[in-house]
Design goal:
By secondary structure, the protein is α/β, with parallel strands linked by helices. Helices cover 49% and strands 8% of the residues. The longest helix is centred in the middle third of the chain and has 22 residues, at 156-177.
């Protein structure tokens, strides 16, 4: 859909944006280059200019438009705010205020209706949409800021379950429906989610007589983000763990469990093709220690790959929150409603 008021983007626009050599107008960024930099179309930039006055400060008849660094900062702020769910008119006013500019044309202000504080579900929906838009634009800085804000505002567990996971699923569905398109969107979003999760696991782990937990993806499983979320949540709580990541061979998981005697072994499988029931049964039957004082792990199976009949001697949490609650019980932790894993 063309949002430029019916004006075709043809040779006239291309000629206007073609670089001109040897003049003072060479300073700055062209509309096409700026659009690519922001991950939006040139039509969007022209619409923001026409509707809200977010255009380049310098305009010379007969020459293409050039955007200065101040102009670029202004439209970058517009993109960041709209990705966060701010209505375009409000975002435009904030962007203009940021640069100290006054709109060259009247900017329509939204109606001031009486508003109630949005409920949590509405807030989550708005944040998911903003995150998806920023990822689609390949706006890395906005993606990182939105993820950080979600974790700070809601806590890691709610941010993961209500904002991050639904957005990852939505982007994945878009990729599947569009063929080979949008692969770069999913990769960029996944990388920044992983970066955010790693930053969360900063709490120091107090000395403990208990052995660390083992977290591992089953052999052949490359989707490790949910396991990273669990690792980050445990890190925030100061629970000792050993994180082995994606595609861990059977022998490696088994050897690590025998050597360290973990209270919990958590195995993640994203698809039925990677879930290894024999591995789960083997770990559930594992024993260590001297006769009369042998130990065994609590084996937890996470992910949709384990759908189907239950595996004897294992637990199957359905969410990050449930996994934390089951780990708390395995540690013998008392119920504390202020701690995420106890709710």
């Amino acid at each position: 859909m063309d949002d430029s008021g019916g004006r075709p983007e043809g040779r006239e626009d291309q000629a206007r944006e073609r670089p001109v050599d040897g003049g003072p107008e060479d300073a700055g960024v062209s509309t096409g280059a700026l659009a690519r930099r922001l991950g939006v179309s040139p039509t969007t930039l022209r619409t923001w200019d026409r509707r809200y006055g977010l255009g380049p400060a310098r305009r010379e008849p007969g020459h293409h438009r050039r955007w200065s660094e101040r102009d670029v900062a202004m439209v970058e702020e517009m993109g960041r705010l709209t990705a966060a769910g701010v209505p375009p008119a409000e975002a435009a006013h904030a962007a203009l205020k940021l640069t100290g500019e006054e709109p060259s044309a009247p900017v329509p202000r939204p109606r001031r209706a009486r508003r109630t504080r949005p409920s949590a579900p509405e807030m989550f929906v708005r944040q998911r949409k903003g995150l998806a838009r920023a990822a689609t634009r390949l706006d890395a800085s906005a993606v990182q800021e939105l993820l950080t804000t979600a974790v700070e505002r809601h806590g890691l567990v709610d941010a993961w379950q209500e904002v991050i996971t639904p957005t990852l699923h939505a982007v994945g569905r878009k990729w599947e429906e569009a063929g080979d398109r949008y692969v770069e969107v999913e990769h960029l979003l996944s990388w920044h989610v992983s970066r955010t999760l790693h930053r969360c696991a900063t709490a120091p782990v107090a000395p403990s007589a208990a052995a660390p937990l083992i977290l591992a993806c089953v052999p052949g499983e490359q989707h490790s983000l949910p396991l990273e979320a669990l690792s980050a949540a445990l890190g925030e709580l100061g629970v000792p763990q050993r994180m082995f990541g994606a595609a861990v061979p059977v022998e490696a998981v088994s050897a690590a469990a025998r050597r360290t005697g973990p209270p919990v072994v958590f195995l993640w499988s994203q698809s039925r093709s990677t879930a290894s029931v024999p591995l789960a049964r083997h770990l559930a039957d594992l024993r260590w220690g001297v006769r009369g004082a042998r130990g065994r792990p609590v084996v937890m199976l996470g992910g949709p790959g384990w759908a189907g009949p239950a595996v004897r001697g294992t637990l199957r949490p359905a969410s990050l929150r449930e996994a934390l609650a089951q780990i708390a019980r395995a540690h013998g932790e008392p119920h504390d409603p202020t701690v995420p894993w106890a709710t």
